[in-house]
Design brief:
- Chain A has 218 residues and is of the alpha/beta class.
- Chain A contains 9 helices and 7 strands, in the order αβαβαβαβαβααβαβα.
- The first copy, chain A, is globular, with a radius of gyration of 17 Å.
- Chain A binds chain B through residues 1, 4-5, 8, 12, 40-42, 68-71, 73-74, 92-95, 98, 122-127, 130, 143, 145-147, 149-150, 152-156, 168, 171, 174-175, and chain B through 1, 4-5, 8, 12, 40-42, 68-71, 73-74, 92-95, 98, 122-127, 130, 143, 145-147, 149-150, 152-156, 168, 171, 174.
Chain lengths: 218, 218
C-alpha cells in the first residue's frame, strides 16, 4: 500500500475504534452482551451458532446479525433452525463490518429485552480482525480442514480473539491436523486465548463452549 | 463505508487496474504466462500447486510467489516439494496483492528464461478478487469442506475467475456438498467459468486441469 492509502486507512481505523468503544459502552449500559464471531468462509460459523443459540435461547433474548457480501441463506437458516430473530447485513462488497454498520443494524432489531447480540462476521481471516465491531467478546473459529498452520499466516485474527474454537473435529481422521501444535501456534499469537475443540455435527464440546460464553456474560 | 473511503478506494482500484494492464502486457511480451491462484485459507492451494508444478516443470521454467500476511511455510514447502524457485511475499497486513507488489516481487526472481509465473494469493475470498494482479489467468479454488453455497456469498471471486477448481473431493463422503448445485451457482456468477473437480491427495482430476492451463498458455 502506498503512503496515502496507509494514512487514510489509519484514520478510518482510528475513527472506527472510537465508534466501537462508544458502542461497546452503550450496549453494556443497556445490558446487552455482544459477541463477534469470525472465521474463514466455510469454517462452520452458522452451524456452530445454531447449536450455541439453541442452548442459550431459553436463558437469553438473542438477536443475530448475519454479515455477508451477498446472499441471505445464513439469516434464513438461523431463523429457521433456532427461531430467534436474525437479520442479514450486506456489506456492499466490503470484507468486514465496521462498528457503525453494526450500530445501524442494531436499530433494525425489534427484540424485547434483547440481552445477547451475536454477529456472524464476513467469512475472512484478515479484514474483520482489523475492524473492532464494538463487541464484548471476539470468538474465532478454525476448522480442521483448513489446517493447523493458520495462526502462523493470519496473526491478527488470533491476537484479537479471546476465544478460539477448533471446529469440525469429527473430520480429524480425514485430515492431517495437529491439535497440540495448533494450540501452541494460537498461544504464540495470544497467550491468554481460551481454546475450545468442538464438533457441531457430533455435538462434542458444545457444552464447555456455552459455559465459557456464559462466564464472560456474568 | 463512508463516501470518502469509497472514493479513495475507487482511485486505488483504478490505479491498480492500470498498473495491472501494463504488467500483463509486459509479461506477455517477455513470454511469461502469469497465473493468479485464489481461495479461502486452507482450501488446498499449496497442495494443489505442488501437484500442478510437478507436472508442468519439465516443460516450463516456473517461478512461484507465495503471498501471506506472515510466515514463510508455503514458500519453503513449494521449494522443498517441487524444486522450483519460490519466494515469500509479505503483504504488511493487507488482505491482497496489488499489481505493483507483484511487479516488485518479480524483480527478485532469478530464473533463467522464466515462462510460467504462479502467484498463490492471500487466503481470502474477498479482497484478492478486487485487485487485478496483472495475471493472464485467475484460478480460484473452492474446497468441499467449505460448502457449496460460497458462490452465493462471494460473487466477485467467482466472477473474476476463468477457472474454478473444486478441491478435496476425496472428502465428499464426510461433507454435504452438492457438486451439481455448486456448478450452477458458479455459472450464475460467471457463465463462462470452466469448472474442474480434483483431489490433490488422491491425484484425481489433476491431468485435466494441467491440460486446461496449458491450453490457455498456448
Amino acid at each position: 500500500m502506498d503512503i496515502r492509502t496507509v494514512t487514510v486507512k489509519e484514520n478510518i481505523l482510528i475513527e472506527n475504534n472510537q465508534k466501537a468503544e462508544e458502542l461497546r459502552k452503550n450496549l453494556q449500559e443497556k445490558g446487552i452482551f455482544f459477541i463477534n464471531v469470525m472465521a474463514s468462509p466455510g469454517a462452520g460459523k452458522t452451524t456452530l451458532l445454531v447449536e450455541l443459540i439453541n442452548r442459550l435461547k431459553t436463558k437469553y433474548n438473542i438477536g443475530v446479525m448475519e454479515a455477508d457480501i451477498d446472499g441471505d441463506v445464513d439469516a434464513e437458516r438461523i431463523s429457521k433452525l433456532t427461531g430467534v430473530k436474525s437479520i442479514q447485513v450486506h456489506t456492499s462488497g466490503a470484507c468486514h463490518l465496521t462498528a457503525q454498520m453494526v450500530e445501524d443494524a442494531i436499530n433494525e432489531f425489534n427484540v424485547k429485552d434483547l440481552n445477547l447480540l451475536i454477529l456472524e462476521n464476513v467469512g475472512n481471516l484478515v479484514c474483520p480482525a482489523e475492524f473492532d465491531t464494538g463487541s464484548h467478546l471476539n470468538m474465532m473459529l478454525l476448522s480442521v480442514p483448513e489446517g493447523y498452520d493458520k495462526p502462523l499466516k493470519y496473526p491478527l485474527m488470533f491476537q484479537v480473539s479471546q476465544i478460539a474454537v477448533i471446529t469440525k473435529i469429527d473430520t480429524l481422521p480425514v485430515f492431517k491436523f495437529d491439535i497440540e501444535l495448533c494450540k501452541q501456534y494460537i498461544h504464540r499469537r495470544n497467550k491468554d486465548a481460551e481454546i475450545y475443540v468442538v464438533s457441531a455435527l457430533k455435538q462434542q464440546g458444545i457444552g464447555e463452549l456455552v459455559k465459557a460464553i456464559e462466564k464472560r456474560m456474568a
